[in-house]
Specification:
Helices cover 25% and strands 24% of the residues. With 166 residues, it is α+β, with helices and mostly antiparallel strands. Strands 1, 2, 3, 4, 5, 6 and 7 form a 7-stranded mixed β-sheet that branches. Strand 5 and strand 6 form a beta hairpin. The chain is globular, with a radius of gyration of 16 Å.
């Protein structure tokens, strides 16, 4: 479990981000932004490019020690992933994280493995690849630059063992 000092430091860091809004209600489900198919990769410094994971998009909501996992369509997945729930509880913070549930290395060829694990046909470790921090404690971060949110998420997950991955 994260210590109180770490939680306070991370909340303070969140408050210093341009666009952060303090006093937000407890984190709740937010429909995630979805990728759009385009003909060319956007150019310029205003764009952030990331690897594409082949898994299931999940939002992790942690409030007062209770974790809930949601699909992008607001279907609850909490009961399906007890190891991920336990790892998120160990963070000891209220938060809303956007990420992807993956098997193997999260590549296209690993998607079948993910489906087989979830159906009970195969056994393999699953990971939750967190890639965006939307809220931390009572600080709404959605108005902040994405690169700033990602840096804060990286700090939050520093030294945390799998199944949580930044």
């Amino acid at each position: 479990r994260r210590g109180r000092q770490t939680s306070v430091r991370l909340r303070h860091a969140a408050l210093t981000l341009a666009g952060a809004k303090a006093g937000a209600p407890a984190p709740r489900f937010q429909a995630p932004q979805l990728a759009r198919l385009v003909d060319a990769v956007p150019a310029g410094e205003r764009w952030l490019h990331e690897a594409k994971w082949d898994g299931y998009r999940l939002l992790a909501q942690c409030v007062a020690g209770k974790v809930r996992l949601w699909s992008r369509n607001a279907r609850e997945w909490t009961h399906k992933l007890p190891d991920i729930v336990t790892a998120l509880q160990a963070l000891g913070m209220d938060l809303l994280v956007d990420g992807e549930l993956v098997a193997g290395l999260g590549r296209q060829q690993d998607f079948g493995l993910l489906q087989a694990v979830l159906s009970g046909e195969r056994r393999a470790p699953l990971s939750y690849v967190a890639f965006d921090l939307l809220q931390l404690a009572d600080v709404d971060l959605r108005g902040c630059r994405q690169d700033a949110r990602k840096q804060l998420l990286q700090r939050l997950l520093a030294g945390v063992p799998t199944p949580l991955v930044y």
